[in-house]
Design brief:
- The protein folds into two domains: 353 residues, no CATH class; 110 residues, Thrombin, subunit H (Beta Barrel).
- The longest helix is centred in the middle third of the chain and has 23 residues.
- It has eight helices and 23 strands.
- A hairpin with a 6-residue loop joins strand 18 and strand 19.
- The strands form six sheets. It has a six-stranded antiparallel beta sheet with strand order 3-10-6-7-8-5, with no helix packed on it.
- The chain is α+β, with helices and mostly antiparallel strands.
- The protein is elongated and about 95 Å long.
């Protein structure tokens, strides 16, 4: 019989929704007759210590900040060196002859209108396939089809490789003017492109309603701190659910184009849009998959250290590879911004390759079995999934301040004390609010979004079933 999970995740569907709030009817679910009992509550499915990215990664990777407006922004700058792609093959002519090439869209342009190119007259241009250098004689800025007249700097053809044509797809690169000459005059200006990224804070809310009688009847269960009244458990659950609700909103985003409300982009949609991705075959992770990953990190200027948030199945795939190759302890538990004991507690293990240090962590947020207690049968968009998060600080392109690559951004109510992120209408703490109904209401609300700085340095690792 092949290896298989015979009985796996259980606990679905999870919590009970009481649309009209807690009443004394909830006591019908409990047995108060048996005289011998343990008064405490046991977490049947463990805790959520591996669910909150902010706790896993710590302050060196995620910063919690405030915003005074629902929309907030940050600025980034692009690459300092210019390049373009040849749009169509052109015959080179004789050695030393000028050649006119057209720049391909969108690869060679910095804006959606295809009117911004990095090339200036007199710049030195290098052909990627063979390293030959040319000079830009003229630039004709036709929208979406800029043309460059290129003059070879030596007695050779402007061509791809050893051929007699410069081919479609050839790369043209420039650092600037390398052959100005003593009598040269001023030339055009080249500057890194500046980018502004906007996001918005979405509104999260949770409520607990308990009738007076439900709140007045003492139970036999200690819900914590010698509290035996049922609303205590509901409020504690509300607090926990609000924190995890924030986690999912900032990580996965909250779309809102088909509503009248305002949501938020989210970390994963932002990284998917701007960051890198490397795919591998599930149950067959190979060392070259790691090398593909580090190639992308190196190309996009990633820092030395990365934290991996991983579905457990991906963590197992990588462990199978690494422990098979490095049997003598080259994989180490390492300090990742706090004590080594804390690193082990949170499940990190370290691995270094290609000048990069990786710290791996199982992240329950990618695994429905751990959170919801069921195994999907119709696909799972986060199966065998991992996210590489840069460790450390990056520099803001506008004001040169340094900050972590990830931020949880809370819109701050001016009436709420500065340190509070989740609050009720009663100045920052959960408080029962009496109405004309014989019931107590407990309310929490948060306005929160995410900011991903230099998303190009993040990288997704995705396992594919083949």
């Amino acid at each position: 019989m092949p290896s298989a999970i015979v009985k796996g995740a259980t606990g679905q569907p999870g919590p009970v929704a009481y649309s009209t709030g807690l009443t004394t009817g909830v006591f019908n679910d409990l047995n108060f007759v048996i005289p011998d009992y343990i008064p405490g509550l046991v977490a049947k499915y463990g805790n959520s210590s591996y669910l909150l990215a902010s706790e896993i990664l710590g302050n060196t990777n995620i910063e919690q900040v405030n915003t005074s407006t629902q929309t907030y922004s940050h600025f980034e700058k692009g690459r300092p060196y210019g390049s373009g792609i040849v749009a169509a093959t052109v015959a080179s002519g004789a050695a030393g002859s000028n050649v006119t090439v057209t720049l391909k869209a969108p690869d060679s342009y910095n804006n959606a209108a295809f009117t911004q190119s990095p090339f200036l007259v007199n710049q030195t241009v290098k052909i990627r396939s063979n390293g030959r250098k040319c000079q830009v004689v003229t630039v004709t800025p036709t929208q979406g089809a800029f043309t460059l007249v290129l003059k070879p700097l030596g007695n050779y053809q402007v061509a791809t490789g050893t051929g007699s044509s410069i081919l479609q797809g050839e790369g043209l690169e420039t650092f600037g003017n390398q052959l100005a000459g003593e009598a040269s005059d001023s030339q055009g200006t080249q500057q890194q492109k500046l980018y502004r990224y906007d996001n918005t804070a979405t509104v999260l809310r949770a409520s607990v309603k308990a009738s007076d009688l439900a709140g007045m009847n003492k139970t036999q269960i200690d819900f914590g701190n010698n509290e035996f009244y049922l609303p205590t458990l509901a409020v504690k659950e509300m607090n926990m659910q609000m924190i995890v609700n924030i986690e999912d909103a900032v990580m996965e985003g909250v779309p809102y184009s088909n509503t009248t409300n305002t949501g938020t982009v989210g970390v994963m949609p932002d990284v998917t849009n701007r960051g890198g991705e490397v795919d591998y075959v599930v149950r067959n992770f190979q060392i070259w998959d790691f090398q593909n990953f580090t190639n992308v990190l190196d190309a996009n200027g990633g820092p030395r250290e990365y934290h991996f948030l991983q579905a457990l199945t991906q963590r197992q795939d990588i462990n199978n590879l690494l422990f098979g190759i490095y049997r003598n302890g080259a994989i180490s538990y390492a300090s990742v911004g706090f004590s080594q004991e804390a690193a082990v507690t949170y499940g990190f293990s370290g691995f270094s390759t290609d000048t990069f240090d990786f710290h791996f962590h199982r992240y329950k947020g990618f695994t429905p079995q751990s959170i919801f207690g069921y195994t999907p049968s119709q696909g799972d968009y986060r199966a065998d999934f991992g996210l590489g998060v840069p460790q450390g600080d990056t520099v803001d392109a506008k004001d040169n301040t340094t900050r972590p690559y990830l931020q949880w951004v809370y819109q701050q109510n001016p009436d709420i004390p500065a340190g509070l992120r989740i609050y009720s209408w009663d100045l920052g703490y959960t408080k029962n609010t009496k109405t004309t109904v014989a019931a107590n209401f407990y309310e929490e609300i948060a306005y929160v979004g995410s900011r991903v700085i230099a998303a190009e340095q993040f990288n997704v690792l995705k396992g594919l079933q083949v």
